[in-house]
Amino acid sequence: MASIYDVVIVGGGIAGLSLASALAGQCSVALVEAEQTLAYHTSSRSARQLIPSYGPAVVQELTVRTLELMSARDAALPVPVLEPRSFMLVGDEATVKAEASGHMHSITHAEALELCPALKPGAFTVAGLDTGSFACNAPVLLQDHQQRAEAGGVDIVTGARVHSAQRLGSGWQLGAGMEGFQSAVVVNAAGAWADELAVLSGVEKLGLQPFRRTAAIVDVERPLAPGTPMVAAADNTYYFRREGEQVLISPSETVPSGPEDARPRPGDVEAIVALVDSLTTLGIRSVAKAWTGLRTEAADGVPVVGFDAEASGFFWLAGQGGYGFQTSSAIAELAAADILGFLSGASPVSRTASELAATRWSIRR
After folding, report:
1. What is the pLDDT of residues 215-228, one digit of tens each?
2. Residue 10 belongs to what H/E stretch?
3. CB-based contacts of 154: which residues, under 8 Å, 6+ apart?
4. 349-354 long-range CB contacts below 8 Å, 24 or more apart?
5. Which pTM does this prediction carry?
6. 339-350 residue pLDDT tens
7. Of 30, 114, 129, 237, which residue is the least packed, with the fewest Cβ within 10 Å?
8. What number of other Cβ atoms are within 10 A of residue 332's Cβ?
């Protein structure tokens, strides 16, 4: 016997959890996750920085709205999700200018060194600063979404990989793990596996591409001071930020991958340690922890949020790339309105929703 819901969300990362939280109490919802724990893949491997100046215009708009929504929720949490932490972009004049946006302002070379004395003067020529950027306490945010979802009646099932999915009359029937589900709407929040879930469901895939991104926590001789901005190279060759008395570093690589439980490849961590050590006075002593996550993107680099063009009731919530946390609350707000409209027979339309729609022409590779 299959359990019947209005909505089944496939994927328990930040995208699926934030939507479950937004829908909770407004319709019947089940969230199914293939792994034994929620947020196991990319959502547990985030840089944990929300940057209004990062990404295409629609992503920046979603980031600003997400910060508004998170700030409002922080008032009710014992531990806040957000903590101010500026974001500094460094490089040569042309590259910084090309990557900077309206949320970022230029600062002098001397001002940049004052904000981050660990940078060697010859490591860059110009810099931009986004003072509206925030550190994100990802575990607290994920836990808050889960608690709100469960309090609103959402059934969360882990260790349940979807093995079958098909249209059934006006809805969908799914097999996940040892359980069966029926629903009017299936939400594809499967991250790097989003195209695979589409194919399994008889839906045309969108050509979403996962990309590798490695990071490490390192012990250093000279820790960064509290309040030091997150620093990133405008040419996407590295970034680093304070992690208590340690430092998080990354080569910012964008290497195509299949959907997998990604791990650092031999030499990746050693190379970024050598690069950051050459550009800073941190004095990296050892690697405490290293990991690799997958950032899945559509061809145009914009998240995919909306119902499929052909498969009624199949809702895409995928392709967030490196913007998952920083757009999550705003995207969940939009997606929830769209899904509730579908269930009630209404059709809410907004400019932002149309820019994210699964039907847009620029999405496919």
Report:
1. 999 999 999 999 99
2. strand 3-10
3. 20, 21, 23, 24, 29, 30, 31
4. 352/58, 352/61, 352/62, 353/305, 353/306
5. 0.95
6. 999 999 887 667
7. 114
8. 25
